[in-house]
Input
Amino acid sequence: MRSRFLTALRDDWRVLVATILGMSLFAVLVTVVAVLWTRPSAPEGEEGTEESLLGENARPQLPNVGIDDLAVPNEGRRLENWTWQRYRTPGNPWDEEEVDRFWVDPKEPALEYLGTRNDEEVERILQNVP
Output
């Protein structure tokens, strides 16, 4: 039975394609008719006005706000009354012992860095000398 069905499909593929296309066209037509049928109609007498085209709920209702309703700060007065405020209390100055614990003489690292750089540069220059 299955082989007869497949043979019929193979022989009548044009009929199958035409049936599928016809059913699809019918479904599209039914959908278009349903959308047009259920669409609300425009009110009579107000044809062409913007409000009638947009509908009642298309525009949001905004509150009426005047210039007197806004609180605008006076920036000039705020800047005149500005004073410097400390964010932390300053500590006591360090004594000689505390400074010596963390002090590094800048000559030593600078001489070490420059010496290393100069040695590398000399090696690079002399590398190609026979």
